Amino acid sequence: MSLCPNKLRVLIVRHGETRENVEGIIQGQLDTDLNVRGRLQADVTGRFLSSTRIDRVIASPLKRAADTARTIHKHQNCSPTLKLEFDDRLKERAFGVLEGHVYHGGSSKPEDTEGIERMEPFSERLGSFWNDLVTRTGEVNDDKIETVVLVSHGAAISALMNQVLIPGRYLLVPPSVQPSRFWNCSITELLIPVINTSHPTNTKSPGHLSRKTTWSIRPIHLGVQGSQFLLDHDLQKKFLAMANANSVAETAIKQVETRIRRTESEFERDPKGKEQLKQDTIKAPDGKSVENDIGYGKAIGVVVKWSNVDHLKQIDKSALSSTVNSSASSSNTNVDELV
């Protein structure tokens, strides 16, 4: 039996461009196709990743993501051990009656839109996927790194990062990494510690929704572990120290100051409560505290690259980029991420 990896190198790829991307149409779960530029982006991305040994490719089954994943998979020389996997949990957010319409912005809350997938269940299905991805059973090889490619959608990737991984401090963003929108065929690279658990007595997977209140990695609305709250508190204090030494928006500084004062006041009032928070650590499905530390704290990963498109620069030098459509598409905005 093969040993489990100690860490995962996760490459998150947004699908290639579609006509709807160019025209500012909300796609959601409409099953749209890649356009000419999108197919070229997928091919260039596949060629770029061909020199990387990939262990798994997992994609949303919607055509624009599935076809991007198939192209990446093809450039792995069709390794017999590399299967192309599809997972409904990587689908784009459903936008109900907004799908198929041009996005014009607006003041109404999208959560009130007929047929829209509300943010909480949306982030929960992504959290479900993530817990299944990072949790492994068996003996660990400390030197083994598994490389996984995920192919998904703009709003889905954004929710995974900004509703699940970063707010709970399960993933650190170094100062050298600048968050941005997730562009077509961009690559976001993460280095993640594996959560190892003993052989399960529960037949349900680690990411099963019935287990969400005790997930190792939780969307922010489910409440993060106390240890992660303390980590966030310490990071806020560091941010405030840096902000006072640099030019940062005054409003943002005041908000952080208020949050820090409130938390410090609670700690002074209830020191035992603070100690209890320290004991509330990230736990594996078997109930044991996760000890795996790849250099950023127990069970904590890091963003290596965010929405990187350097590999696509050659497209802009090609004849295709000189056409009207492609020059318009080169700056298209991901409206699904904005809704």
TrEMBL record:
<feature type="region of interest" description="Disordered">
    <location>
        <begin position="262"/>
        <end position="290"/>
    </location>
</feature>
<dbReference type="GO" id="GO:0045820">
    <property type="term" value="P:negative regulation of glycolytic process"/>
</dbReference>
<dbReference type="GO" id="GO:0043456">
    <property type="term" value="P:regulation of pentose-phosphate shunt"/>
</dbReference>
<dbReference type="GO" id="GO:0004331">
    <property type="term" value="F:fructose-2,6-bisphosphate 2-phosphatase activity"/>
</dbReference>
<feature type="binding site">
    <location>
        <position position="64"/>
    </location>
    <ligand>
        <name>substrate</name>
    </ligand>
</feature>
<dbReference type="InterPro" id="IPR051695">
    <property type="entry name" value="Phosphoglycerate_Mutase"/>
</dbReference>
<dbReference type="GO" id="GO:0005829">
    <property type="term" value="C:cytosol"/>
</dbReference>
<dbReference type="InterPro" id="IPR029033">
    <property type="entry name" value="His_PPase_superfam"/>
</dbReference>
<dbReference type="InterPro" id="IPR001345">
    <property type="entry name" value="PG/BPGM_mutase_AS"/>
</dbReference>
<feature type="active site" description="Tele-phosphohistidine intermediate">
    <location>
        <position position="15"/>
    </location>
</feature>
<feature type="active site" description="Proton donor/acceptor">
    <location>
        <position position="92"/>
    </location>
</feature>
<feature type="binding site">
    <location>
        <begin position="14"/>
        <end position="21"/>
    </location>
    <ligand>
        <name>substrate</name>
    </ligand>
</feature>
<keyword id="KW-0378">Hydrolase</keyword>
<feature type="region of interest" description="Disordered">
    <location>
        <begin position="320"/>
        <end position="339"/>
    </location>
</feature>
<protein>
    <recommendedName>
        <fullName>Phosphoglycerate mutase</fullName>
    </recommendedName>
</protein>
<dbReference type="InterPro" id="IPR013078">
    <property type="entry name" value="His_Pase_superF_clade-1"/>
</dbReference>
<dbReference type="Pfam" id="PF00300">
    <property type="entry name" value="His_Phos_1"/>
</dbReference>
